[in-house]
Design a protein that fits this description.
- It is a single chain.
- Strands 1-4-10-11-12 form a five-stranded mixed sheet.
- The radius of gyration is 20 Å and the shape is globular.
- Helix content is 37%, strand content 24%.
- It has two domains: 30 residues, no CATH class; 249 residues, no CATH class.
- The chain starts with 6 loop residues before the first helix and ends with a strand.
- By secondary structure, it is of the alpha+beta class.
């Protein structure tokens, strides 16, 4: 059974022992293997062949996409917390500058999404184009940038704590010379907003890699080398309805990058509606 991080404990450690201790605590609960679903598009989509080949080429080159949150299918990403702007304004903070800072901060984070599950039927449907795509298993050797997503029914309205947090972040960030190491520390304070979603999404059991970018475009995606993040591909799982040409291409990719390859199938003789994987 997978052990889950206690988010209240994470916050308590931040307050009492500091960020470094909290991140060490978080790292203990990051799985060593995570999965990512990938869609292979069909003729319903414009330029689908080109888009598919681009995605497969990145897999072959041991690269992975990281994306701005505005590209996600949930329009309420990064919106789980609210700030008491009136309080900050009374303290003579420039609200427009604070708002600009918060948006800039969120736009500097690109995200790669993972899960602990490779046989989830809704996820194969939603994220792998109705089982026509594939799922990649990654071995995680460095857990520093990986964060678990937690799920809440309601938005966090603890405006006092959050307002204090934003004040400290703003003051600190204003005097920061954009060092990556320091940036990763301060966005841990913003973790509640970056990695919190509505309970509706809980079935995904999501983990996120948070990647800093200095680019200013909003709706962007970027391809990065997985070796730079201390990850490697362990296995490829091919969707139940994946087209034969793509099946063959994925098999060839698995040979090139030296990983296992499986084909997903439906367990016709079991009592449960369940997907099973068969090694090719």
């Amino acid at each position: 059974m997978e052990l889950k991080m206690d988010f209240n404990q994470f916050n308590n450690i931040v307050e009492k022992e500091g960020l470094d201790s909290a991140i060490k605590y978080k790292n203990e609960y990051i799985p060593k293997r995570l999965f990512q679903y990938n869609a292979l598009l069909d003729k319903r989509y414009n330029n689908y062949i080109e888009k598919n080949e681009k995605k497969l080429e990145s897999l072959k080159e041991n690269k992975i996409y990281v994306t701005n949150y505005r590209c996600f299918n949930d329009p309420f990403e990064f919106e789980m917390l609210s700030v008491d702007m009136d309080k900050l304004q009374k303290e003579n903070y420039d609200i427009k500058e604070i708002d600009k800072f918060l948006n800039a901060f969120k736009n500097k984070i690109l995200v790669a999404c993972f899960t602990t599950i490779n046989d989830n039927m809704p996820m194969w449907a939603h994220y792998a184009n109705n089982h026509k795509g594939y799922c990649v298993e990654y071995e995680i050797n460095d857990t520093e940038k990986i964060y678990p997503v937690f799920y809440e029914q309601f938005r966090n309205n603890n405006s006092k704590e959050l307002t204090n947090m934003v004040r400290e972040l703003y003051d600190y960030y204003s005097n920061l010379n954009n060092h990556k190491e320091e940036f990763y520390k301060i966005f841990s304070y913003f973790y509640l907003s970056l990695c919190c979603k509505n309970k509706f999404w809980e079935y995904e059991n999501e983990y996120r890699m948070l990647y800093k970018t200095d680019e200013i475009e909003v709706n962007i995606e970027k391809v990065i080398k997985i070796e730079d993040e201390d990850m490697n591909v362990k296995s490829i799982y091919i969707g139940y309805k994946c087209e034969d040409d793509y099946v063959n291409e994925l098999i060839n990719i698995s040979k090139k990058i030296k990983c296992n390859v499986y084909k997903m199938d439906f367990n016709k003789y079991g009592v449960d509606y369940k997907l099973i994987s068969k090694q090719i």
